[in-house]
Amino acid sequence: MSIDPTTADRLPPPAACQRLVVTLFAGMAEIVGARRLEIDWHGGTVADLRRGIVAARPAIGPLLARSAVAVAGRYAADDRTIDAGAEVAIIPPVSGG
Amino acid sequence: MSAPHSTGLSGGDPGAPSPLPAEAGTCLLVHTPIDGAAVLASVSAADAGGNVLFLGSTRGLTDGVTTLSLDYEAHEPLALAMLEELRSAAMARFALCGCAIVHRLGRVAVGEASIAIAASAPHRREAFAAAEWLLERVKAEVPIWKCEEGGDGGRTWVHPGDMRAGVEGGG
Q1: Residue pairs between chains A and B whose CB atoms are closer than 8 Å
Q2: I need a surface site. Which of B14, B71, B97, B134 has the fewest CB within 10 A?
């Protein structure tokens, strides 16, 4: 079956796979054994990133579920889109003071 | 205070007091001991009748468990930006004359201060309230973490609660 040209024009271009570098801190870094985690990234939201991280490193799932995600220097909600090359960090529950 | 003020975030000499806030209140992350008197002095103002200094220190015994030291780390750029935002918010909310927040990073021995918050206001009530409000906000929001080093040699990162509650819906 062929796709008619009108429909094809409306299809999004295939997303190029890139590497997203995620910075880890404190107990999260301890679990992973590294301060950076590289994730295959086809574009998406914070929620997509959370799923990608759990798939890559299931052990951090429970702590990740209680953690915030910072994108470009701001805490970001799950529906926030992450641009390729964005600065991303996982912020586990804080304990300063 | 004769020493020149510095806005550097870390001192070179691990035993030397941390650099002083450069103006009538500022925010710093430091890797050396906090000079509480200097932090308080940095917020003094002619029209401030109430001047509060809070020092949070490493506690040696919690519920019968011995702590030798706390080891702090931070997402430094984000933590500093958030401290500055909180400071600005407190200045407006409590009509302060001056305000400073200094948090220490790295190893903090029992009895040493990990955080200093100074607030000055025309009257005491606002200064007290601002210091407490700031401390609670820092403890709940700012990306700084402590690792407890116990008497048994164990190290435990402290991750209480759930960070997502305050993010979802708030953008």
Answers
A1: 100
A2: B14
Protein fold of B36-157: Aldehyde Oxidoreductase; domain 3 (3.90.1170)
The answer to whether A92 contacts B171, with C-beta atoms less than 8 Å apart, is no
**Any A CB within 8 A of B158 CB:** yes
Please answer yes or no on whether B144 and A97 come within 8 Å at the CB atom: yes
Residues from chain B contacting residue A76 (CB–CB below 8 Å) = 167
Q: What is the ipTM of this complex?
A: 0.84
- Asked if residue A61 belongs to a domain, the reply is yes
B80 Cβ contact list (under 8 Å, min separation 6): B9, B27, B29
B131 touches chain A (CB under 8 A): no
Question: With the CA atoms of B150, B148, A62 and B74 taken in that order, what torsion angle do they form, in degrees rounded to the nearest 10?
Answer: -160
Q: Which residue has the tokens 């409306």?
A: A10
CATH code for the domain in which residue A51 is found: 3.10.20.30
Is residue A58 within 8 A of residue A31, CB to CB? The reply is no
- Overall number of domains in chain A: 1
* Domain range for A77: 17-91
In a domain, A33, yes or no: yes
